[in-house]
Design goal:
The complex is a heterodimer. By secondary structure, chain A is an alpha/beta fold. In chain A, about 40% of the residues lie in helices and about 20% in strands. In chain A, strand 8 (about 140-145) and strand 9 form a beta hairpin. The chains are: A alpha/beta, B alpha+beta. The interface of A and B includes residues 96 and 98 of A.
Chain lengths: ~220, ~450
């Protein structure tokens, strides 16, 4: 899952990047409001963490701009000002959740996972595809009740697939959600990872539809 | 003197009018009396001259009347009209009306106009003269007298109409002064009404004054109101910036500590206390500005709608979504700042949603023309009496298992008090907490 982090305080932004990447997210970090508007409008993200106190352009106006341009990605706002007025303004502008500074990284991660899960239409915290299970709170996979061992990239890929189970996903879409802005998108390596994943979760679970893409489906 | 403007104007005008009316009344009375006396005296004088010309001494040295003078009133007994001609103490001839009585003899230095007492004890006004009649005889003195009460009657006849007409004039003047004062002070009354409206928040500035004398005052008050608002906004901005400034490094510190896996209870505790201290003092500082600003009003429905939407988002992440119902009278507005209302209702709602099992109910009613009541009730575990007391008093945190800083209810309590309202916590039936918040309404 690819997440946009908009935070002007460099150290905090670095901490967030580290924590999110450590938990299986692909992260782009932006320090400036105007750039945030551009990235949010032109890149594909599964969620965004948006600090309200930004230089250049404040967070609320960034959020307004995204929503105005039809971007529906879930957004968690970071507020430092306690006070409900700012939260109300944030939600009016289209926020989906808030976290008050100072916060623990686990809190952000939990919120993001819940938002992404709900945005893809899953009400339950456990997403199941046959015997394959994903715990959105802990971020772990189980197959037939046993923990599944995956590399970081495999994990990212499978998380995206299971959130969009039973749907055909093109390679372009996959790479949009799996590579950060700075990384080169390499369709060949995608293919390698898919085949490795097939070995771990069962080849029949990941279908290849020629010319269209991949589909995770319940074949049990 | 601490008299009102109205009392000053009415009092001074009333006093002056009363003095003037009494003075004018006395003057008119005096004029009339003078006129009546002159007319009376002229009659006496005419009779006197007539008498003097119609008596003479005959050859025997007797004084005789050569013709009748005066009217019949001199012939009617004790009519009050008398004349007599005497030589020293000896009355030589007198009017028939005197019968056998006589008027007092004249002293040699008697004035020409004098007051006498008649034969029946009545007051008389008389004129006298010393003269010599034709023929040979001694020097004579003559007195012609008429009843004093003829003048008095005339005077008393005009006294009542005079008093009545002056009284009427006085009443008219009073009414005119009263109306003038009322009309003159009308701009002030309007100004006072406007100020009240500003204080109650139904308008945010005083209207342009209708009289130029008041315009400087209106300008000053408006400047003061604006300044007041700006000061509050600025200090809030500062407090917000301070919060932002303090919390970002605090967040970094907390995160780098947890990243290094140095889970030290003392450091955790210190961080927690730091965060709570910052929260506590920032919120108290924010609350200080509350309740002192004029001309603010905030729609209850709009604020509730915003907060409820926040709560629906935030508490949707729990396992069982919480159902929030809102019942709010139309057009109800809070007399105060929207940020403060957000704070008041946000904390209460957040607390209710945090503890509720399924249901949170919000009811807002106007309880008096100046007051509204917000009742927020949940179906959670509620609090016992001691907890409720503590919650309002100090913002103690009872249950560490649910996130929250425990300050919420105490903040609401403090803020409400600054606005002259109050927060009452009670047990909800069948379970949960029922928070009743009373606030000023417009």
């Amino acid at each position: 899952m690819r997440v946009l982090v908009v935070e002007d305080e460099q150290h905090l932004a670095a901490q967030m990047r580290e924590a999110l990447e450590g938990n299986g997210f692909v992260v782009d970090v932006i320090n400036d409001g105007n750039e945030a508007v551009y990235m949010g409008n032109n890149e594909t993200y599964d969620a965004a963490v948006l600090d309200l106190g930004l230089p250049g352009r404040d967070g609320l106006s960034v959020l307004h701009d995204w929503r105005h341009n039809g971007r529906t990605l879930p957004v968690v706002i970071l507020t430092a000002r306690d006070g409900w007025s700012e939260k109300v303004q944030g939600f009016r502008a289209g926020a989906d959740d808030y976290v008050t500074k100072p916060f623990r990284m686990e809190e952000i991660i939990m919120r993001l996972r819940a938002l992404i899960r709900r945005a893809s239409g899953h009400a339950d915290v456990m997403i199941r595809c046959g015997a394959l299970e994903y715990d959105t709170q802990l971020g772990t996979f189980h197959l037939d009740g046993l923990p599944l061992k995956l590399t970081a990239f495999e994990h990212q890929l499978l998380v995206y697939l299971i959130h969009n189970a039973e749907r055909v996903i093109s390679r372009t879409e996959l790479s949009e959600h799996l590579y950060s802005y700075d990384n080169d998108r390499d369709h060949n390596s995608l293919e390698v990872i898919i085949s490795r994943l097939r070995r771990k979760v069962g080849a029949e679970r990941i279908e290849t539809l020629r010319g269209q893409g991949y589909r995770l489906c319940d074949r049990s | 003197m601490n008299l009102s403007l109205r009392a000053r104007l009415l009092g001074s005008a009333g006093l002056w009018s009363a003095v003037a009316l009494v003075g004018v009344g006395l003057f008119i009375y005096w004029l009339f009396k003078d006129h009546a006396e002159r007319t009376f005296d002229a009659r006496l004088e005419a009779n006197l001259l007539g008498l003097m010309a119609s008596v003479e001494f005959n050859e025997q040295g007797q004084l005789i009347k050569t013709r009748d003078i005066g009217g019949p009133q001199f012939d009617r007994a004790y009519s009050g009209w008398y004349w007599q001609i005497a030589h020293d103490d000896e009355v030589l001839i007198a009017s028939r009306s005197l019968l056998n009585a006589s008027l007092p003899a004249l002293a040699s230095d008697a004035a020409e106009v004098l007051a006498l007492t008649g034969p029946e004890g009545e007051a008389l006004r008389a004129r006298s003269r010393r003269f010599s009649a034709p023929g040979s005889g001694p020097p004579l003195s003559i007195i012609v007298a008429g009843p004093q009460n003829e003048i008095d009657d005339a005077l008393s006849r005009i006294l009542l109409p005079l008093i009545a007409s002056l009284g009427l004039l006085g009443v008219g003047l009073g009414a005119a002064v009263w109306w003038q004062v009322r009309w003159g002070l009308k701009p002030l009354t309007r100004l006072r009404r406007d100020l009240l409206a500003v204080r109650q928040g139904s308008r945010d500035h005083l209207a342009h004054a209708t009289v130029e004398e008041l315009q400087p005052l209106v300008d000053e008050i408006n400047a003061l109101v604006t300044h007041n608002r700006e000061v509050i906004a600025r200090s809030r901005q500062h407090v917000g910036n301070l919060a932002h400034g303090l919390k970002t490094p605090l967040a970094m510190l907390a995160n780098s500590l947890s990243a290094q896996q140095t889970h030290n209870a003392t450091i955790d505790e210190a961080m927690m206390r730091l965060k709570r201290l910052v929260d506590h003092h920032l919120r108290r500082a924010r609350a200080v500005g509350a309740g002192y600003h004029m001309g603010e009003r905030t729609q209850m429905a709009t604020t509730l709608e915003g907060l409820v939407s926040v709560m629906r988002h935030v508490y949707a992440r729990g396992p069982t979504p919480i159902h929030i119902t809102v019942q709010c009278d139309d057009g109800l507005a809070f007399r105060g700042e929207s940020q403060d209302l957000d704070e008041l209702l946000g904390n209460l709602l957040d607390n209710a949603c945090k503890w509720a099992r399924r249901q949170v109910m919000i009811e807002v009613h106007r309880t008096s023309p100046e007051q509204l009541t917000v009742v927020i009730s949940d179906d959670g575990p509620g609090m016992d009496e001691a907890q409720r007391l503590k919650a309002v008093e100090r913002g103690e945190r009872f249950d560490e298992s649910t996130p929250g800083d425990g300050l919420g209810l105490a903040i609401v309590h403090d803020l409400a008090r600054l606005y002259g309202g109050h927060l009452a916590l009670a047990a909800n039936v069948p379970s949960g907490l029922r928070a009743e918040l009373t606030l000023p309404a417009t």
